Amino acid sequence: MIVKLFKKIVKRNIPRWIVLLIDIYIVINTFVLSYLVRFNFSFSFDTSKLLLQIPIVVIAAFVAFVSVGSYKGIIRHTGFKDSMNVTFASFLIFLMLGVLVISNHYFSIHANFTIPKSILVIHFLLNVLILISSRYLFKEIYNYVMAGFGVHKKVVIYGAGQAGMLVYSILSEDKKNKTNVIAFIDDDKSKAGNKINGITVYESAKIDEDFIVDKEVSEIIISIQNIRPSKLLEIVDRISKLPSKVKIVPPVQSWIDGNLNPKQIKAVKIEDLLGREPISLNNPTLQKEFDNKVVLVTGAAGSIGSEITRQLTKFNIQKLILVDQAESDLYNIQQYLVHKHIDNAMAIVADVRNKNRMEGLVKKYQPAIIFHAAAYKHVPFMEDNPNEAVNTNVLGTKIMADLAVQYHVEKFVFISTDKAVNPTNIMGATKRIAEMYINCANTKGATKFITTRFGNVLGSNGSVIPLFQSQIKRGGPITVTHKDITRYFMTIPEACQLVLEAGCMGEGGEIFVFDMGESIKIFDLALNMIRLSGLKYPSEIDIKITGLRPGEKIYEELLASGENTTTTYNDKIMIAKVKKLDCDKTSRKVEELCTLNGDLNFEQTVLKMKKIVPEFISNNSKYELLDN
Question: What is the spatial distance between Cα 421 and Cα 419, in angstroms, rounded to a whole number?
C-alpha cells in the first residue's frame, strides 16, 4: 500500500519551489558540515557566528539557484547537464560568499562575519558532491520503485563495441522492463576477459548451452552495426541453437529520430538473413519520371503490383489506375489507399485477357506509363493448366503491349522472373515468350518497352516463407522438395524499388537483371526458421523431403545460355545481353500460340511453346516426352 502511494506521488513532477527549498536546506547543512570537517568534527569554534552567517548563505544560495535555474530540471531525468548546472550554482555561492568575506575584511563592515577561506572551499566541494548525489539518488530510487524489485530477464549482448555499449545503457535505464545485462560476447579475442561497467566480455566460443542455462539467460541481443549479412547468418546459425531467444538491434537509419527505443529490439527475421546487402534507393530522377503522369498498374492486387502501387503513391502522380481481376485483394489495396487519404488512385476490376475491356480503359485514361505485373506464377498449377498460363501470361501481355503501341504509351515495364531463364516449366516458358514479344514490340512504335527480371521475393503470396511459417505453426513438418535446392531472394519493397528504378533508366528493348546476392539453400532457410521460432530440429519440428515438383529446378538462373550483362549507373541493376530475334517470325509464332487457347490438347500447346523457346526443356514433368 505504501509503495503504491509512493509510486503515485513520484509519478508527478515535484514542484520546483520544493526542489529549491530542498537545495537550500542541503546548502545550509553542508555549511555546518564544513565547519565540523575543518575542526575535526568538534565544536571548538564560535557557533554563535553561525546565526549571522547562515542567513547570508541562504540568500547567496537562493540567488545562485534562481540565476542558474538548477532547480527547474526534472530530478528523475537527471543527467550531465543538470550536474553542470548544480556545479555552476555551487561555484556562484562560493564566489558570492568569497566576495562578501573579502569585502568585509577590507572595509570592516561587520566584525562577526568572518568565514575562513578553508570553510568556503570545503563548502563548495560538499555542495557539488551532495547536491549532485542527491539528485542521482532520487533518480535511482524512482527507477527502482517504479520498476519494482527483482529482475524478470537476464540478457547477453553480442557485440562489445559502441553499438553494444549504447544498448547496455538503454537497457540499464529502462527499469520498467526489468532487464539485467549479465555479459557481453565479442568475436575479437583481444576484448575477451575485459570488463565494461563491471560486466565481463566473453569470447563467442565460450558461450555454450551450459553457460546459458547456468546464468539463466533468456535473450541474446545482437548489437553490431554494418555487419556483413554472411557474418550475421553465421552468428545466428550458431547462437540460435542455444536455449535462449535471439534478438537484433535494427540499423541506425531506422532508429526513431536518431534514438534507439528498447521496443525496436526485435526477434531476428528471415529478412535479416538474406545473405546480401539490403537495397535502398533514393533517386531524385524518379520524381521527375512520374511527375504529373497517369500510371496504370495491372495485377495491382498481387504481391508485386500492390507494392509498386504503394511506392508510386510517394510521387506526384496525376492519376493511378489499378487493374486486377481479384476483387477481394483489389478491395484491400483500395482500402489501404483510402486510409492513407490518397484520392488520385482508382481501383478497377478488369481482366487483362479481355481486349475490349482493356482497350476501353487505356483509351479513356491515356496512361503515360504501364507497369504490367498481372500473371499466373505458381509452377505446379501451370503445369496442369498450360492453356490458362498462355492465356494470361502470354495473351494478356500481348494485349497490353499492343494497346501501349496503339495509344502511344510512353513506357511499358514488364515484370518477368528468373524462371524465364532456360525454362523447365510452363510458367517460366510463358514468361520467356512474353519477354520475347515485349522485345519485338519495342520495334513497332514510339513506346519504350522494358523488361525486369528477378528471383523470389520474401513474403509474396504463395512463397516459401509464409508456407514454412504456417507449417511451423501447425507443428510441422516443414516440407522441402529437395535437400540441395537453392533460390535467390529479396524483399518485396527492394524488388519494387528496383522495378521503378529500371523503368526510369530504360530506353526501350532492355531486359534488366537485378543483383539478387548469393542464392540461399532452402533446407538451411527452413532450419533457421525453426530455430528462430524457439523450436528444435528434428525433435520438435522435422523437415520432410518431398521430391521435386513438376517443372521445378534445383538451381535458378538469372541469365540464359549465351547471355551476359552490361552495367548501369546503379550497381544493383544490370542489363542482360540477349540474342537478337527475328521479330516478324517471333510475333507470328506468338499469335499462333494464342489461337490455341481454346483447344484442350495441352500437348499441342506445350509443343508450340517449345518451338518458340528451344531452350525450354521440361524437368520432372509429363511434358518431358515432347523434348524427345
Answer: 5
The answer to whether 376 and 382 are in contact (CB under 8 A) is yes
Calpha distance 282→264 (Å, rounded): 24
Peptide bond into 538 cis (omega under 30): yes
pLDDT digits (tens, 9 = 90+) for 489-517: 777 888 888 899 888 888 998 998 887 77
Closest CA to 439 of 616, 627, 613, 615: 613
Q: For the sheet containing 217-222, what is the strand order?
A: 195-196, 199-203, 179-186, 153-158, 217-222, 245-248, 266-267
pLDDT of res. 189: 85
Residue given cell 575543518 in the structure block: 38
β-strand pairing of 294-298 with 369-372: parallel
Q: Which of 533, 388, 521 is nearest to 464 (CA)?
A: 521
In angstroms and rounded to an integer, the radius of gyration of the C-alpha atoms of the chain is: 36
Question: Which residues are paired to 511 by β-bridges?
Answer: 451, 576
Q: Is 263 exposed, middle or buried (0-12, 13-18, 19+ CB in 10 A)?
A: exposed
Q: Nearest 5°: phi and psi at 162?
A: -65, -40
Distance CA 207, CA 196 (A): 18
CA distances from 627 to 146, 422, 618, 622 (A): 74, 14, 7, 10
With contact defined as beta carbons under 8 Å apart, do 427 and 393 qualify?
yes
HSE-up (13 A, CA, CB side) for residue 377: 19
- Give residue for cell 510441422: 476
Cα separation of the two ends of the chain: 86
Q: Extract the C-alpha cell encoding 471.
A: 507449417
Identify the residue with better confidence: 279 or 273: 273
What average pLDDT is seen over the chain?
84
Return the H-helix or E-strand segment holding 50: helix 50-68
Q: What does DSSP assign to residue 78?
A: -
Beta strand ranges found along 459-596 (DSSP E): 478-480, 486-487, 489-491, 511-514, 520-521, 543-545, 564-567, 573-577
CA angle 368, 401, 603 (to 5 degrees): 155
Structural contact between residues 390 and 436, judged by C-beta atoms closer than 8 angstroms: no
* Cα–Cα distances in angstroms (integers) from residue 221 to residues 168, 170, 179, 183, 577, in the given order: 10, 13, 12, 11, 45
Neighbours of 402 (CB within 10 A): 17
| Residue 253: CB atoms within 10 Å | 8
